[in-house]
Amino acid sequence: CLMREDTPLLAGKTVTITAGPTREALDPVRFISNHSSGKMGFSLACAAKALGAKVNLISGPVNLTTPSEVNRFDVESAQQMHDAAMELAVNSDVFIGCAAVADYKATTTANNKIKKQGDTMTIELSKNPDIIASVAALEENRPFTVGFAAETNDVANYAKGKLKNKNLDMICANDVSDSSIGFNSENNAMTLFWPEGERHLSLQSKQQISHLILKEIASKLAAKK
Ligand code: CTP
Ligand code: CA
């Protein structure tokens, strides 16, 4: 964590963040996943800590060290991430869904290694729970809920659609058609959307951009009171 902030804008607040990919098992040795590195979520955890928050980081399988003084919860599947998120969200002031959650899992997971058979094979998939939408739908103890949207096209419209449909307070949208930003990169550029406005954050390190996102969240949280 590089950023050090003099004003602890999130002192006394609890921030829960999901990060990294999820893994959906097909059998004991195979899974469906994605290329998320977890860097953005871990950067957000650092930034929240630097602003004085108590930080819970729910992480899928990643190769990153836990930022100091951050409570890390390791999970594999989307269902496990969902269960951890629902438990922690009700005691959080802010929930940030930065994980690249697998949208689908195998309908059935084989107990034994699946054997090679014909020239084609079909795997039936079933939809995973939408973690951030479940958090945002909480009727009691609902945290300020922030989503991410990685899009390759029509970025602003898809992001605004997710903001509305998932009932989020803010969404951070980035264009992943440009490989210099997002997923495995050290840098990122994005636009934050909330119901009444938007703010563009120019290309900079994930650490710097995380700091700006958390400061924006802190000011919105303060304004809500
Ligand atoms: N998300 C989630 N649970 C899921 C899928 C997504 O919590 N099962 C969250 C992500 O962490 C992110 C936001 O929802 O904060 C948007 O994720 P994204 O994949 O862009 O949206 P989807 O609703 O899955 O739509 P699609 O993949 O079709 O664009
Ligand atoms: Ca998705």
TrEMBL record:
GO terms for biological process: coenzyme A biosynthetic process; pantothenate catabolic process. Binds 1 FMN per subunit. Its cofactor is FMN; Mg(2+). It catalyses: (R)-4'-phosphopantothenate + L-cysteine + CTP = N-[(R)-4-phosphopantothenoyl]-L-cysteine + CMP + diphosphate + H(+); N-[(R)-4-phosphopantothenoyl]-L-cysteine + H(+) = (R)-4'-phosphopantetheine + CO2. One of its GO terms (molecular function) is FMN binding. CTP binds at G97, C98, A99, D103, K113, P129, D130, I131, I132, F148, K162, K166. In the N-terminal section; belongs to the HFCD (homo-oligomeric flavin containing Cys decarboxylase) superfamily. This is Coenzyme A biosynthesis bifunctional protein CoaBC. It comes from Pseudoalteromonas piratica. The lineage of its organism: Bacteria, Pseudomonadati, Pseudomonadota, Gammaproteobacteria, Alteromonadales. The gene is coaBC. The chain holds residues 173 to 397 of 397 of the full protein.
